[in-house]
Amino acid sequence: MREPILQTQSLTKSFGALVALSDINLSVTRGEIHTIVGPNGAGKTTFFNLVTGKLKPSAGRILFRGEDITGLSVHRISRLGLARSFQITNVMLKLTVFENIRLAVQSRSNVNFHFFASPQKLIDINSKALEIIEKVNLLDDYDKTAESLSHGALRQLEIGMALACDPHLMLLDEPTAGMGVAETQETMQLIREIAQNMTILLIEHDMDVVFSISDTISVFHYGHLLVTDTPQKIRENEEVQNAYLGRKMGVTS
At what angle do helices 151-163 and 119-135 cross, to 10 degrees? Predict the structure, then answer.
């Protein structure tokens, strides 16, 4: 079996008397597309915020690539190779696609764009930026400002900026939200392509997307991890049907 890239051990988060997450033991296997689903308020975004360092846990541990990252800052966790997209974007709307991606690449290269910068280093940064732009299918839009992009293209740009961090694990928060059928299909294909070289953990509400793209699904419910299993087992799970899928897909038991 492949080793886990991310593990949480009894992860708990309370806000005063409110327990948002309770005793979450979740393992994400290296190289998989792992999707978290659940109704609004189930604790999905809180989980992402804990894993990425935006929130500090009340109890429990978070292990990333075997290293305890519990309580580390967002910046330090990102440097270890964990990237997040779609919850709070760093896109600069007045800059072009190329400029946004280039800045993201530069942030990982320790190179400043000044008069004495090595020409070869600048060439390398520009080359990598164009490579990422091609990977996220934005070559035709490379000189357009971010604010002029369609909703789907803006999401592709956000993925590109996360890719610029050379992550081992990418967290995507509702990557197809607000998209039409064509944009959703394009985004799903992009995620599949990215997953060939890294692990993907995502939150998604569109159950058609979830069942077609996921290797593993975890169901959150009222701050608890209800079950983690294969898509087929999740479909057949009566407890999941009663708690979530019955409302989302019209499943009857």
Answer: 130
| Distance (Å, whole) CA 27 – CA 7 | 4
Q: How many CB atoms within 10 Å of residue 178?
A: 10
Q: In this structure, which topology does domain 85-166 adopt according to CATH?
A: Rossmann fold (3.40.50)
In the chain, the DSSP E strands lie at 4-15, 18-29, 33-37, 59-64, 67-68, 82-85, 169-173, 199-203, 216-221, 224-229
The distance in angstroms from the start CA to the end CA of the chain is 33
Local structure of residue 87 (DSSP, 8 states): S
State pLDDT tens for residues 212-224.
Answer: 999 999 999 999 9
pTM score of the predicted model: 0.88
Q: How many residues does the chain have?
A: 253
CA distance 246 to 53: 33
- The rounded distance, in Å, linking the Cα atoms of 224 and 47 is 11
